[in-house]
Amino acid sequence: MAQPISAPKSSLAHPSDQQPLAKAEGLGSITQCSCGTLSLNVQAFSLRLDLQSFAKLLLMCSEAMDSVERGLKNSSTTATLVH
Fold first, then answer.
1. Is the pTM of this model over 0.85?
2. Where are the domains of the chain?
3. Bridge partners of 42?
4. Cα–Cα distance measured from residue 66 to residue 46, given in angstroms and rounded to the nearest whole number
């Protein structure tokens, strides 16, 4: 007799399973679910990372900010962001 096929469990945590860690009004938030996954929510964008990847992201952002600040200090004119 064939066994019924169950639907795969969603990898997304139920909203009530999310513990708020940080929030910036007008920008977004960071939450953590009971499985340890961290969610970086910036406006309409969400990124889910394990703790090690989240730590690497923070280091990468810190290095980028240091580079931007060094560039601003070394610049003799007012910096203009262009993308």
1. no
2. 17-68
3. 28, 45
4. 25
